[in-house]
Amino acid sequence: MSREEITTIRVIDNAQLETAARAQVMNVYGLTEEQVRGVYCAPIALITQHGINGDLHAVVGTEGVGMYATEHSQLVEVFCGVGAMMDCYPVRFRVQVLLEMVSEEVLLADWVRTFGSRLESNFYQWSRWANKQTGGEPIPR
Known about the structure:
alpha+beta; 5-stranded antiparallel beta sheet; 31% strand
């Protein structure tokens, strides 16, 4: 398989993601609006493994690091930095909510940066998962 493969992913609009994350951080962690003014979420995209019993979804960043939703929960965890110190807060989104934030579709090969063996390994891991060429689920990092 080459980097020119055809796995299509859906890019999540970052402004919408950060707005939704800000609200969740306030609700879940009890932070004030002033405290969450500087929320930052790294760009993510949804990747899907299509199956006869339903689709499995995951989110993947531009370095090929991601988290997958189990078929039972349909929740994906996204990590956001908050404030000047960029304290990290995990927030969970239903896959359906993220699907409503899609801004464009791109190829996985174009999404994951190319720089060294680690990023290449991450890319191929997700590509194999999306195309059902692995014995299991990707390892979240």
